[in-house]
Amino acid sequence: MERLREILRREKRDELSFLRELLEALISEEDVYSDELLFRDAIEEIYGTLKGLVFEKGRRDLIPAYEDAVLLRSLVARKVKEPRELMDDMIKKLGA
């Protein structure tokens, strides 16, 4: 848990190394889920960093990782739906 806090506080010089280290900490620390707020912050940091790399820095090679981050963020927010329900929602959001 403390390792995760330390990683999140650190300055991100090499974003990919930062993401790898953060993900490894999340995977290796079993008690990480006990602090739900810290866990959610870490997931948001992963999502935001990858979004910036893909859309602001043009790192198209990271699109698959960004897509995974979108799914992970949805899972953590408990917004995952059945495929049919998700597609119905998408149709509604596309407008008339």
Shape descriptor reads flat
The radius of gyration computed from the alpha-carbon positions, rounded to a whole number of angstroms, is 15 Å
Helix content: over 70%
Intertermini distance? 47 Å
**Topology, number of strands:** 0
- Quickly count the helices: 5
From the helix content, strand content and strand pairing, which structural class follows?
Answer: mainly alpha
User: Ranges with pLDDT <50 over ≥5 residues?
Assistant: none
Could you report the average pLDDT, rounded to the nearest whole number? 85
Q: How many domain modules? A: 1
Relative strand content: under 5%
The SSE order reads: HHHHH
Tell me about the biggest sheet?
A: none
Please explain how this structure is put together:
The protein has 96 residues and is mostly helical. It has one domain (2-94). The protein has five helices and no strands. Helix 2 (15-28) packs antiparallel against helix 3 (36-56). The protein is flat. The termini are far apart.
